[in-house]
Amino acid sequence: MIGFCKVAVTPVPTTVPISLTELAVGAVARLHEVCLDPEACHQLRSLGLTTSSQLRLCKKGEPCIVQVRSVRIGISGAVARRILVVPLPAGAS
Amino acid sequence: MSASSVALLGNPNTGKTTLFNRLCGARAKTSNFPGTTTAMRAGRTHVGAEPMDVVDLPGLYTLHGDSPEATIVRGVLRGDEASRPGAVIVLVDAANLARNLVLVGEVLTFDEPVVVVLNMVDLAERTGLQVDAPALSRRLGAPVVPMVASRGIGLDQLREQLQLLTGETATQVRPADLPAADASIEELTQWADSVLSDAYPGGAPAAALDARIERIDRVLTHPVSGTLVFMAVMGALFWTLFELATLPMDLIELTFGYLGAGVSAVLPAGAIRDLLIDGVIGGIAGTVVFLPQICLLFFMISLLEDTGYLARAAFVNDRIFRRFGLPGHAFVPLLTAHACALPAIMSTRLIPDRRDRLATIMVAPFMSCSARLPVYILLTGLLFVDRPGWAGVGFAVCYLLGAAAAFFSAWLFGKTGLRGEPRPMVLELPTYKWPSLNNALLTAKDQGQAFLQTAGTVIVAICVVMWWLSAYPKVQVPAEALQLRQAAAVAGVAPAEAADLQARADILQGKAEQAGSYAGIIGHTIQPAFQPLGYDWQLTVGILTSFLAREVFVSTMSVIVGGGAEADPDEGVRRRIRTMTRDDGSLVFTPATAASALVFFVLAMQCLPTLAVTRKETGAVKYALIQLGYMSGLAYVAALVVYQSLRAAGIG
């Protein structure tokens, strides 16, 4: 959590990918990589979670809820752990 | 399909069903796409004076991938000249254009003329999104019709566009920057973004967060509050179901009762009358009586689905179900199965993954359906004579045992035949909406029809066969019964005594007819297999006949003890069942036998219509056979353990 506070106050965005489960609620991030089987990757992409797409974490936990553009997607923890994102500075959208 | 046909396509949750219902009304037909278990709805609408066929294609996000839905849709769009639709309507959510345009881009790579319907513009405008439809239309090279399908706004404009498109002169020029047919979702998304910048006059809007939706989602997906809400919603649903379904079910039973009595009064006694009353009318009544529950259930599920709540509830249940190898979606089928396994198996279509769907279909019939109720009432009454409190506990234990068997079996299948974990859940959480009454009514009608078609014919056929097996060959009236009747007919016998003699004669004759019938002969032959479970030949006949439909058990037992073939026997018949004896004179229903039979009925697959639906929904006879073998095998072993343990403990 402390790491995210840094992201919020540091003007330079960090480029180290973290798991979606580590992202702070309300934070915006760019999708970096999905470490899942091709079928699950396809499902995420078809819902709008494509490579480099921007998402906002609305709720942590089981399920975590992210918003990609105006689509809200519920993601179970098992999947969220394997989604790597790069947090973007606050205000990015 | 031909020039006067149109295919309807769109992302899930874009109001596709609503638009289809608006176009086609109540005349639509539901079937499966050829060679698949994916449902296809087809209907007819009018464009100008001309009729036009409408096919509702499965909802999907993209034509990429090898999901059954994507394969079906690609097949339809790529079909030959004769089978291709004359035009394609792509329905998009106005509030969620970016992702919806990916599908539009994919469809534009096919040859069919396209019309884009911009649905739910009212909801989009409420969130401040104003789409420039003419600009979007120019950009896509296809007409764009703004619409509020739930209120019928934009329908006339859509019909006009369809008339223009299916005319012979229609040609559409595709956008120059349209990604190629084999483009990736990422390329299509980029293209969609560039289209969007032209569609929004003030530039593409930033995605806004709705604080109200955030709060509601937090409550509904929370482990504690989410579970409480879920239990309350389901409790209300089933309470309403049983409350509302009772009256029409009683009316149906009453009507068929009168019908039977009418036929009985008109026709002379004999085989044809018996066939009509016990076989045909009994069979139709036995099917139609479930219709109110099925229609009501689907009506309420459709309302719930429309609100957007089901997606949230799926996550709440996923936490628990996952441990047993079932997906969170399985809660609708498993709850439905408490009413009837047929609609439960039909409703597994909500589950996207095939393994998950199969696992749910295989275990759903373990849930105690309403057809088991009369059997539970009878057997718990026999097990706990004059102790209604204990009978109630026994009743609850039956329900729990069924549910436990379902979860245990799902876990077992996950470790063996259906190896693998349920697919981790990733679901779009649709916007909360008011449900559509019209959609719910049409869903109820469609599912009711599907039930009658699949189950009805099978049940009627079963009843006719069952009737024949238990009525033939005719045997001679036993001499003892004749003597009793003669004694009753002697002048001077008190009426009460005469009635008693007649009743005893009826029992003797009923028993003789049962024993001599084909069902009785089969019962006698198979009885040794059920000996270790404590069943004599009469109980074996009851068990065997109930393999076709379990509620038949109660009427078979009533017939054996000389009552009518009533589903709800009176106290006298129940007493006679309780005191019925084996050939050696001992009681049939000792506590151990009653408990063993009860366990058998909780677990065994005794419903031929369910097997028919399993075969249809899985697309393979194999699964129906496994279901029959596994459930009945488990029932046999469990009943054996119960009977032998109780005997060893000195009970019964």
The total of beta strands of chain B comes to 8
Rg calc of chain B = 30 Å
By CATH, the architecture of chain A is named: Roll
- Our count of domains of chain A comes out at 1
CATH class of chain A: Mainly Beta
Characterize the biggest β-sheet of chain A.
6 strands, antiparallel
CATH architecture annotation name of the domain at 5-208 in chain B = 3-Layer(aba) Sandwich
CATH class category label of the domain at 5-208 in chain B: Alpha Beta
| CATH overall fold name of chain A | SH3 type barrels
How many helices of chain B? The count is 27
CATH superfamily of the domain at 5-208 in chain B: P-loop containing nucleotide triphosphate hydrolases
Helix content of chain A: 10-25%
Q: Structural class per helix/strand content of chain A?
A: alpha+beta
> Strand order within the widest sheet of chain A?
1-6-2-3-4-5
Q: What name does the CATH topology of the domain at 5-208 in chain B carry?
A: Rossmann fold
Q: Enumerate the spans of chain B where pLDDT stays under 50 for 5 or more consecutive residues.
A: none
Strand order of the largest sheet of chain B: 2-3-4-1-5-6-7
Features:
heterodimer, A: 93 residues, alpha+beta, six-stranded antiparallel β-sheet, 3 helices, disordered N terminus, B: 652 residues, alpha/beta, 7% strand
Explain briefly what this protein structure is.
The complex is a heterodimer of chains A (93) and B (652). Chain A is an alpha+beta fold.
List the helices and strands and how they pair.
The complex is a heterodimer of chains A (93) and B (652).
Chain A: H1 2-9, E1 18-19, E2 28-34, H2 38-46, E3 54-59, E4 64-68, E5 71-75, H3 77-80, E6 83-87
Antiparallel strand pairs in A: 1-6, 2-3, 2-6, 3-4, 4-5
Chain B: E1 5-10, H1 16-24, E2 29-32, E3 39-47, E4 50-56, H2 68-78, E5 87-93, H3 97-108, E6 114-119, H4 121-126, H5 133-140, E7 144-146, H6 155-166, H7 185-199, H8 211-220, H9 225-266, H10 271-288, H11 291-307, H12 309-321, H13 331-336, H14 341-346, H15 354-363, H16 373-383, H17 388-415, E8 426-428, H18 437-471, H19 479-489, H20 495-516, H21 518-530, H22 537-545, H23 552-560, H24 571-579, H25 591-603, H26 608-618, H27 621-648
Parallel strand pairs in B: 1-4, 1-5, 5-6, 6-7
Antiparallel strand pairs in B: 2-3, 3-4
